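Contributing new complexes? Match this layout with adenosine monophosphate.
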Amino acid sequence: MHGEMMEEQLLISDILEHAAAVHGQAEIVSRYSHRDIHRYGYADALERTKKLANALSRLGVIEGQCVGTLAWNDHRHFELYYAISGIGAITHTINPRQSSEQISYIINHASDTFIFLDPDFIPLLESIEHQIKGVIGFVVLANRFEMPPTKLPNVWCYEELLQGESETYHWPRFPDSTAASLCYTSGTTGDPKGVLYSHRSTLSHARAVAGGEGWMLDSSSSVLPVVPMFHACAWGIPYSAAMLGSKLVLPGGALDGKSLFELIDSEAVNSMCGVPTVWQGLLRHLDSIGRKLTNVEKVVVGGSAAPLSMIQEFDEKHDVFVMHGWGMTELSPVGAVNCLTPEMKLMPRNERHQLQMKQGKPLFGIKMKIVDDNGMEQPHDGRSFGRLMVKGPWVAKSYFKCTDHSAFSCDGWFDTGDISTIDSSGYMQIVDRAKDVIKSGGEWISSIEIENAALGCDGVTEACVIAATHDKWGERPLLLITVNKLRSEKTVQQHLANVLPKIWLPDAIIIVETLPHNATGKLLKQELRKTYQNYLISDEIA
Ligand code: AMP
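Output block (do not edit by hand):
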């Protein structure tokens, strides 16, 4: 027997209609053109989004077509999120940090009809324009007077496009399983893979991350997503903030510590989200000017492991709780969050910091298990580790137009490619990417834990551990670091000896000028492996 409740579909356009009706004056504040501040309310955003929806229809965009965006976090990108998906088309967010070959590949793979781009990205698109001939036209996100000269064909000015359009638009209703947005993974091997989110997966995810076991947003929040809107929908924040009427503070393309602090300070930001590298920049800036964070209550750290030193510094110097989170593009992207629980509030600080290093408990809706190489489930005892498998309503079930289904098991689990532990309370901790874990004489060594320990050494700005081939042990850890103060490898070695088991101590430490990153800021270990693979092969060096 079916329940006798309405079959009302959950659509992205409903979020903005709700925000405009109930939180119409709550602000969206954006920094654009790197300096200027734009502010308006959700009601104004809805008006402009409807004009954009009319403009898209006039351009001939129809349901199911992909429209690319190549833009920073600002109000225009926000409007595109809602208008494109709202009319039933697909918002394809393009990551400008990917290589130009990858960008032309994904534009062609998605069959993007139009691309809406910030002026900053004109040179990038000009350089690949001859490879993306399927694109009908380019819309530059600017006023007429800001329009730079360009060799791109069929160019529109965004503000002119909106001018004269009607503010009346009736959002179409369709099944909420309809595709809403598309994001390609920034994988380090092979072609990028597309993850095609639906309206339902987007709304389910946005509700879960906004709630009490997630970002804990409400209408008193002022939330700053530093995480880009071109990667995994900025962790769902443009949707969650609108659902709950939170003030949304969008940083544009200025992501350095100084620019971020100005915005945090002037907009009384109390909640912010981003990857560890961004927060390193902010913390160093605060140090250099001797300022403290006053309004910020929590900072969500994900994308890479939050180092202990960062958790401690935010807490001890700024009284800010680091809410560690884990996710992947394939999970919309958030799967687990480590929020402040009553048990944590009672813990001594040091103990709590250790617990905060875990990536957190799965959000309701996400199921997790860990399995060994034979697919046997491992116990949730906090010690046994295995490949992390997940399933849930906002987890991908296949890649867009892709025949490689190897990550999707026939019984409905997605293989994350991460190795983790899960303890008896449900806290999940990432040990490593399966391909980065070091196998030394039969023991598994976590590169993440060594990196975290190295970052705790004063003066180390970035750390990367790779598995180097070793003739006796098979593999041994090799540590590469960047530093901001003159110091010897010996100091780092001594520091590590105090905090790591002997067998985990890197066989060599190398100070380098910079470390390579992929398009989402993750360390490109494969590239380093190519260079340093044989560094430890001889016993004399080891
Ligand atoms: P992406 O799809 O580019 O967002 O990358 C997802 C991958 O980032 C995951 O599979 C993890 O390997 C890594 N990752 C995300 N969050 C964390 C975290 N908090 N700690 C460690 N690794 C993380």
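Reviewers usually confirm one structural detail per submission. For this one: The chain has three domains: 12-254, 367-433, 438-532.
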